């Protein structure tokens, strides 16, 4: 029986004297889980561990039920893993088709006909079926990001690790991609680091907020948003009590804070509001050096 579970127990990662992940315990099964956090929170480091690119300094990792510290098990995990790194890192001179085909060869798709059909399928999934023969350097930033994502989708991996997949994508492509990722999440474990709170709201049931290398929140998106009810309000003037405020297109100020003034007009909170509130309350930083 294959397992799709992923678990981390007491995972710590240090770079020299700097602790970037500190005693992280997490478990995942099928579905799309969002990973939010400020710059430097440790999201990429966590995803690199889940993609078997980096080993933890301490703690235990089980990917698809296996220990990635064991060479044979790691190879087996990699066969069932799709990874979109934060940076695209394309070789020079490749077309979209040749690049994805090259990665498919590395993923052991030895039969040419089946491999080419798979390359066409994943390029189609990211909306680039008609750009297969375009050279990568001639594609826009958003199109290049979609090519990078296409390679992660080869073979419908059981574990899909995506580091900011929607960076640079236009609204239509982001919407279309949500369809692809939610479909993947029906059978696979999908982990998605992003700064786009709308993508979390649209796509994820569960969200993890990482802050200073520690898990600050792990729960449903609905509960996170629910925690901000009554703490987002609209007024004609900014309030000094708010954690965050800005003048909206209507000319009124939208504010997020622990205490909405009595009698004020409340607004429906978003994931972003709840995230700002969470960040606005004190967290002990784990990153030490
Ligand atoms: N190989 C490395 N050597 C030294 N420090 C590193 C290394 N990789 C990451 N770090 C440090 O670890 C911290 C967390 O980095 P990481 O890239 O995991 O954060 P992040 O949450 O993904 O940030 P962002 O939102 O900016 O992408 C940063 O302070 C970074 O400088």
From TrEMBL:
Q: Which PANTHER family match?
A: ABC TRANSPORTER, ATP-BINDING PROTEIN
* The entry's keywords: ATP-binding, Nucleotide-binding, Transport
Q: Name one GO molecular function term.
A: ATP binding
Cite the SUPFAM superfamilies for this sequence.
P-loop containing nucleoside triphosphate hydrolases
Ranges for domain ABC transporter come to: 6-237
InterPro entries, per this entry? AAA+_ATPase, ABC_transporter-like_ATP-bd, ABC_transporter-like_CS, P-loop_NTPase
Q: What is this protein called?
A: ATP-binding cassette domain-containing protein
Q: Which family does it belong to?
A: Belongs to the ABC transporter superfamily.
**Species name for this entry?**
Georgenia subflava
Give a Pfam family name.
ABC_tran
Would I find DNA repair among this entry's keywords? no
